[in-house]
Amino acid sequence: MLVRCLMCLALLAPAAHAQTRAETEALFQTWLQTTIWPRAHADGVSKRTFNAAFSDVTLNWDLPDLVPPGTTPPQQRTQSQTEFRSPALYFRPNSVDGTANLGRSYANRFATTLAQTERATGVPAHIILAIWGRESGFGRVDIPYNTFRTLGTKGFMSARADYFTDELLAALRITQAGHIAPDQMRSSWAGAMGQPQFMPTSFEAHARDGDGDGRADIWRSEADTIRSIASYLATNGWDGRRDWGFEVNLPPSLPCTAAGRDQMRTIAEWEAVGVTRVSGRPFPAHERNGDAALLLPAGTNGPAFLVTPNFYVLKTYNNSDLYALFVGHVGDKIAFNVGPFRTPWQPVDDLLRSDIAAMQNRLIAIGYDVGGADGLVGFKTRRAIGQWQTAAGQTPTCFPNRETVRAITN
């Protein structure tokens, strides 16, 4: 007992120097036995399951964002974000069209399962298919990582160790429940599992048995995957009576600062100020009294959208405007064979999170609401940029570039 307590203290004490890999591997094995096993046992995980999960498991040193004992987290300045590059990269035609084409074939292949799921949950088949296609290419993309090695590594030595430790414990509970054998539980490099790419806690909350075999197997069962994606969206508030959104034209009098989830109006009210669909068709009658927000993912550097609360349900799956927009757009292509966005994306500067955070801190200091200095260009940051540009006598774009960041921070 004394030796075990001394080991625990050694793990908790700040490392005086960077450990060798061999030393770190030994600490990892001790951490599994003294920290993870007691918590897993308390959750009802058997020793047999625990040993099977961690049989021959070592640290994966190739994963990103690791913070080995005795080291410090990487500086934010080295990090670049996809969202700060041109959204055109996110919407490459081969990616959009390829996903939609496959989606149409899967719509025919699993028509009965999709129809049953839509009736049960209210989530339309084309949205389920778009998420399935985006997450794993309808199960065709290789998911190569051992879940327990991945989550174990990140739980032991990453900047978000507590989060990944909780996910590791959830993964143990999943295999204890008999959904899948430990050696067959595969994930992404971040621990997202199976065809829907659920983190283990999301699996526990939302995975469903779609084929009636009594298990929720999101790795090998298409029916389980379909039902689980729908369950996730339905639980998070998908309204089967509404669409996700519409690409729109804006009148010159409407500034980009009118965008944002906190400035919703009914679609009829947006119509009254001159917002129209790019297709030229009227908004559906059943949508006109429903709330919608103006979305400008790249400010004035790209298309504009009116998005309904369902758009924000899509963001619960992945908290990115571009992700939710991709899913909605690909879903429309699957169901209605729509063309590309009418307004093209313009190139935007590739910026670092540290640069954005510095700009946000400066905007906060001079009285603007940016939603927090997190280095991410959310709608409040986009709006604050537009407000600053207007106050500075500039034409507002509501999106950062190098010149704007330099002008605000200097």
UniProtKB/TrEMBL annotation:
The keyword Lyase is annotated on this UniProt entry: yes
Enzyme Commission number: 4.2.2.-
Superkingdom field: Bacteria
UniProt keywords, alphabetically: Lyase, Signal
Domain Peptidoglycan binding-like: 354-408
InterPro entries: Lysozyme-like_dom_sf, MltB-like, MltB_2, Peptidoglycan-bd-like, PGBD-like_sf, PGBDSf, SLT_2
Gene Ontology molecular function terms on file: peptidoglycan lytic transglycosylase activity
Signal peptide coordinates: 1-18
Keyword Methyltransferase assigned: no
GO biological process, one term: peptidoglycan catabolic process
Record PANTHER family: LYTIC MUREIN TRANSGLYCOSYLASE (PTHR30163:SF8), MEMBRANE-BOUND LYTIC MUREIN TRANSGLYCOSYLASE B (PTHR30163)
Name of the protein described by the UniProt record: Membrane-bound lytic murein transglycosylase B
Lineage: Bacteria, Pseudomonadati, Pseudomonadota, Alphaproteobacteria, Rhodobacterales
Gene designation: mltB_4
